[in-house]
Amino acid sequence: MRLSNLQLQNFRNYDDLSLTFTKNLVIFLGENAQGKTNVLESIFVLAMTRSHRTTNEQELIQWDKNLAAIRGTIERQHTSVPLELFLTKKGRKTKVNHIEQKKLSSYIGQLNVILFAPEDLSLVKGSPQLRRKFLDMEIGQIDPVYLYDLVQYQKVLKQRNQYLKQLAEKKQTDELYLEVLTEQLVEFGSKVLIARQKFVKRLEYWASQLHHKISQNKENLVIDYISSVPDAPWDNLEAVQTAFRQALEKVKNKEQFRQVTLAGPHRDDLIFLINEKNVQTFGSQGQQRTTALSVKLAEIDLMKEETGEYPVLLLDDVMSELDDARQLHLLETIEGKVQTFLTTTTLEHVKDKMTVEPEIFYVRQGQLEGESAE
User: Fold this and answer.
1) Which residues are listed for ATP binding in this entry (predicted)?
2) Fewer CB near the last or first residue (10 Å), C or N of the chain?
């Protein structure tokens, strides 16, 4: 899978931009605050329909405009698919092959991307919310059913939390309705849990091999999914549903006191172990960064395994955050098989380490100069 062209209209600091990509390594070179990251962000938004940098979509549209548009063409093994994303004050509109898509799950997964930015080095030591977001974004790209189940789960979770608050305030007394919401939560949440467990198992398989190599065979990486629904046999949907109901029953009184749902995938987390020690708690900064790098690179092979094609890789100024050994391993892993878009302020990190010739766009004050920039 590769992105052959990109057009932006009224997106961030770009009034009108058209780019054609002919090589597998594309570098956006320029000083900070010139617009490099905005281009990478647009590719991410085209793939995921939302930004990794802001939850306020209005920030993506130029302040004096009513609409922003991102267009791109995806080249797969035997097909060429145009994608279009329109952002307005009222919401988003997506098109695949010029046909509007009503469901998010029908659009996401057309273009699979893996983003690696400096903040992703916080995947290991950051908050559980960050790791849950990571899981949801990556699984959602390769499994449209997961995306549907997750959205439904989040809707029911919101309704259930609202009703728990109403019960506590004595505005409602119908506990039968709470049981209905609980059953819906269990239905969708159990599917989310199983999909996450399956994904983490495959992620660990690929990441452990990479980590072993990066650490020069000195460290063994284990990734565990820590669930608030304990002891469930993850290969059996009915058994997971039963375990989920039991977990909710155990915290029933606490939930009504705290007015919030206390068990389910929205409370879960990942832990990373190196040589049986928790990296989040006891790992050095170097070990934490190696773990994050191993996990991000593992996604490349995992997506290839699940979809049959390599994803597009977005590296946002991450080279300067890695030492020489990790830079070299990153570039060796992606070289020749993954289309990569890279932003950097200098070519020092890449020019002596790559054997493929890059396509370079020079970014100055929102203007791009390069072989294929218009």
Assistant:
1) 30-37
2) C
